[in-house]
Write a structure and sequence with these properties.
- By secondary structure, the protein is an all-alpha fold.
- The protein has four helices and no strands.
């Protein structure tokens, strides 16, 4: 790894560690538990490695499809290793698709109203 990549890698790792620490602190407060530094470090390392694996898989799926952009389908393929994650992502994807359809209908309705008003004038 080059110096810039290594620096970036360490910054990302530190950010994940910080975030995991904050989450553990919040969960600990909510459930009256404490997390040791070793546990937080282990969770952070596991999370970082899993994210790295996901990123590599996403890149590979997009490359395989001869695309330079990762799509929602790539994310669904990556999530297939975890049933719970796969179901969650599938549900979120359906929600987003429905929201987009609703937005298109809303915008189409506005356009029709505007066209009708213009034709009356």
């Amino acid at each position: 790894m080059s110096v810039d990549k290594d620096e970036n890698h360490q910054r990302l790792k530190a950010a994940v560690h910080y975030t995991v620490g904050r989450l553990c602190q919040k969960i600990g407060e909510d459930h009256r538990r404490e997390f040791s530094r070793q546990v937080i470090a282990a969770i952070a390392e596991t999370t970082f490695r899993q994210c790295d694996t996901f990123a590599k898989d996403l890149e590979a799926f997009a490359r395989h499809a001869k695309r330079s952009t990762v799509s929602a389908e790539d994310v669904k393929l990556t999530a297939r290793r975890s049933t719970a994650l796969s179901i969650y992502i599938q549900n979120k994807s359906e929600e987003l698709n429905q929201e987009q359809k609703d937005l298109k209908k809303k915008n189409t309705g506005k356009r029709k109203n505007r066209d009708t008003e213009e034709s009356r004038e």
